[in-house]
């Protein structure tokens, strides 16, 4: 009971790394090897052991989140997302001056500038949308929130949220003169 030294916490909670790595290796179809995932998990566990200030009995929950977080950070930093995560991942439009997402390295500069101008124009015209449409657009496209969560938070059905999102996109495209697929 009570506080334990980091080394002792580390040895007692190595099983957490195996649990989390097993999840990533089986469920996410990751491109990282089992060994890489294990190393990243062990780094997360050790970091958690060094930072932990609470009682040893409660460390398991903290260790799990630290290990999972470390592995996710490394997957993001070192390559593509696992297939399951990449499917639901969209670029965030929070900072227009950032590099335009989802373009290949060989994309010509003039095409990148054209895409940036289109994004700026769309974001600049959000005021033409109703408050609900603005909320859905920003939550979904800028904050990467799934439609089902937006629906729950607004007390509407997911199909209705999808309709409002589609209407918002159509309004913005019409206002800006951008054709879908351009």
Describe what this molecule looks like in 3D:
- Helix 1 (about 5-10) runs antiparallel to helix 3 (about 35-50) and helix 7 (about 130-140) crosses helix 9.
- Mean pLDDT is about 75; it is low at about 80-105.
- The protein has helices at about 5-10, 15-25, 35-50, 60-80, 85-90, 110-125, 130-140, 145-155, 160-175.
- The longest helix has 20 residues, at about 60-80.
- It is mostly helical and about 180 residues long.
- The protein folds into two domains: about 5-90, Rna Polymerase Sigma Factor, Chain: A (Orthogonal Bundle); about 110-175, Arc Repressor Mutant, subunit A, CATH 1.10.10.
Could you name the key traits of this structure?
single chain; 182 residues; mainly alpha; Rna Polymerase Sigma Factor, Chain: A; 66% helix
Write a concise synopsis of the structure shown:
By secondary structure, the chain is an all-alpha fold.
- Helical fraction equals 55-70%
Named CATH architecture of the largest domain: Orthogonal Bundle
Q: Rough shape?
A: elongated
Structural class: mainly alpha
Mean pLDDT: 76
Strand content: under 5%
Report the radius of gyration as a whole number of Å: 22 Å
Q: Which residues sit in consecutive blocks of at least 5 with pLDDT less than 50?
A: 81-104
- The helix tally amounts to 9
Q: Which helices and strands occur, and which strands form pairs?
A:
Layout: H1 6-12, H2 14-27, H3 34-51, H4 59-78, H5 83-88, H6 109-124, H7 131-142, H8 147-154, H9 158-176
Helix pairs in contact: 1-3, 2-3, 2-4, 3-4, 7-9, 8-9
């Amino acid at each position: 009971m009570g506080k334990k030294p980091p080394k002792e916490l580390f040895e007692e909670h190595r099983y957490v790394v195996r649990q989390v790595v097993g999840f990533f290796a089986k469920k996410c179809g990751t491109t990282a090897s089992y060994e890489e995932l294990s190393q990243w998990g062990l780094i997360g566990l050790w970091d958690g052991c060094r930072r932990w200030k609470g009682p040893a009995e409660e460390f398991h929950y903290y260790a799990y989140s630290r290990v999972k977080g470390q592995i996710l950070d490394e997957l993001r930093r070192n390559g593509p997302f696992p297939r399951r995560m990449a499917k639901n991942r969209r670029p965030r439009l929070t900072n227009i001056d950032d590099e335009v997402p989802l373009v290949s390295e060989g994309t010509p500069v003039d095409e990148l500038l054209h895409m940036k101008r289109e994004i700026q124009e769309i974001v600049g015209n959000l005021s033409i949308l109703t408050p609900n449409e603005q909320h859905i657009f920003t939550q979904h496209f800028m904050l990467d929130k799934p439609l089902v969560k937006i629906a729950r938070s607004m007390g509407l059905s997911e199909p209705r949220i999808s309709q409002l999102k589609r209407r918002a996109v159509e309004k913005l495209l019409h206002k800006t003169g951008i054709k879908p697929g351009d």
